[in-house]
Amino acid sequence: MKSYYFLFLFLLFGSCDVISNAPNYGGTSSSNNEVQEFRTLMEKDQINKTRVNAEVLTYLLNDSDPAEKNTAAVIENRSNCNIIVRMVGKSNNQIYNLPIAANSKNQFVIQKGSYTLRSNICAAKYYSQKNILDPLSLKLSKN
């Protein structure tokens, strides 16, 4: 199992610097406000990214500790559109707006709990409810 995580992490961090400086804001469902929000979120996301990556690695490599209040979320966007995954906590009142560039992945530290997740993936809508107690790995695509 640890070798699987090592391979996953190698692939994860091998693609961390792939996000271009001029991301593609294509897609038919993106409004001008969402395009601007994506840009702003990506700028904020880059602050302390090395520290966040280290924390995500810690959560992925170690066994889940029930006493720990946070965990990792790794989200892969397999579409040609930039997306924002919106997570709203049911019981912990946490709200996350997580930017993921087209054809790439991004990782985050989130609080454990029950969440409603939603996103616009090009012209498709994504909606899900998840109870996140362990690291989350999510792959989203247009199809």
TrEMBL record:
Lineage top rank: taxon: Bacteria
PROSITE patterns the record matches: PROKAR_LIPOPROTEIN
Entry's transmembrane regions: none
InterPro entries for this protein: DUF6759
Secretion signal, residue range per the UniProt entry: 1-20
Domain DUF6759: 47-142
Name of the protein in question: DUF6759 domain-containing protein
Originating organism: Kaistella gelatinilytica
